[in-house]
Structures are given as C-alpha cells and as structure tokens.
Amino acid sequence: MDWRADIIGIVERLRPGSILGVMPADEPLRAELTRRTLGADCRFVSAAELLHEDFAIARSRLAIVTGVMEQLNKRDAGQLIARLRDLHAEVTYATVAIGDTWPQSISHWRNEELIAYGLRQVRHYTIEGKPLNLYHYDIYDYKLTPDWLNSRYWANPERWEKERW
What we know:
Strand order of the largest sheet: 2-1-3-4-6-5
Oligomer: single chain
Structural class: alpha/beta
Radius of gyration: 19 Å
Largest sheet: 6 strands, mixed
Strand content: 25-35%
Shape: globular
Distance between the termini: 52 Å
C-alpha cells in the first residue's frame, strides 16, 4: 500500500476547505496535494516556521504532516503535534517512521509515544523493510463521552437528593 495514495484518498474523501501541509520542500506529496485540492486553500509550512513563537495562521480543517517528526528532536516534534492539535487544525494526519531502523532519523519513535499525544494509528506500512505508520487526530472524536457520564446517572444534579449510589 502506498501511503501517499492513502493521504490523497483522505483529502478527496474529506474535501476540506483548507489544508495545512507540514513537510519538506522536496516531498512529492506537495505537488499532488496542490493539484488535487479541488479549490481548497492549501498552504505549506516548514516545521521551523510552525514552531516559531510568532507563527500565526488561520485554523485549517486538515493538517498533513510527513517527513518531519523523525527529523526533529522529540521535544520539538511533540510541540509541533500539540500546536497542530490545539491551535492550527481540526483534523491532523501524520506519517511517522517507527523504531530505530531508519538511519537518517534524529528521533526514533514508538507507537505508545505517539498515542500519548492523542494520535490514533490508522495504517501501518512497510517501506524497504522499515515500519511507517499513519496517525490521525480529530478534535471532534478525540474523546467520546462515556455512557456513564450523562444525565441518567450521577451527573444529573436533579437526582442528587433523590438517589444514593
């Protein structure tokens, strides 16, 4: 499976009004996204730009991160995901090289570390025998309200004096 084709498929399925791409300038996905955005506002920034304290940009519907996480130290990569998640995008998809088998990587990621940032693994790829995962974050389905936390149970103030648990 080709991860670039999967990301293009996601863009075509979501049809976002705006896309924020965080990827190297020579990433072939940039040209393909620009060509297939179907009228969406498509902007590309570097990780350094996004991490700069004065960086300001309107919130995008979709952010796509690729070729970046493993090229930053873990602290900066964590800040990048947090900024995208909290400030710059409603939905984020990120490809991340997993493990220490990628020789050019600065940081080596484990699946658990990325889950700790609120990302969910949606796909696993093998590129030349090395693992690459696609992760997803959506502000609208990040944390679903559990069944027990509703007005039928203890969270209903009208029942506090009527029942004892």
